[in-house]
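Hi R.,

Here's the chain you asked about this morning:
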Amino acid sequence: MPDTLSNSEAVSTEQHKIAVCACTRMFNDLKILDHSGHVSVRLPDSNNFLMQGIEASRSQLVPGDLFTVSLDGEVLDGPAGTRPAAEFHIHSEIYKARPEINSVLHAHPKVPILFTIAEGAELKIVVNHGYRWRNSLPVHLDTGHINTSELGAEMVATMGDANAVLLRAHGIVLASEDVKCLLIDGIHFDENALACLEASRLGPPIAMSDEELDVFQGRFSRSNHGRKLWHYYSTRAIENGVLPEEWRDAV
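And the predicted structure, written out as tokens:
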């Protein structure tokens, strides 16, 4: 599989499907996803994306559980007797508005949500990998399910050009250039939130300055880091039975 798992013809639809399933299972194992939430990937050279069915288990997701959905919400193919996750509009509306985004996570990790429900709480960027969200970390105030295109568009308007949006009392949405980078973004977003929370027990958390983030970003290779973490977590997941052995060459 190509190193970037990017939106290119070099990656087959079946490889994209395995990547979505692998990323979902790894997020579930890391407690970033639980019984709910979803990962999607935009298919190359199309207005379609892959995402799971509403009843599919996040811990046992397989390619046959995935739907191909158009950006207008038309189900093009997928398993019979079920339907895509109801909040697929989160994904479709981001893909409509952000052509540079090729993979999206919606999840409900406990720590980041705390920063949307505690008065005066602010999720600051306190670790270096948080540079990804340095421009903005908005909070969308609608606490309900985002299950129509209109509601998805409203969330995207709140998100703007940020790479993440917090959903008040609900969850998070992360947007990345490919699924490998989505994995590292999900891990680092949760790490940053936990560090901010734990630091607050000692004193007010000190946000990283623009100068500090500039230094880190100038020396950092996002693509190399994505490959390294994907290899580490996918290999560990295979060894621990989270991913099937037959996916080893595919991931």
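Helices lie at 13-29, 88-97, 110-114, 149-159, 179-199, 210-219, 222-239.

Let me know if you need anything else.
M.
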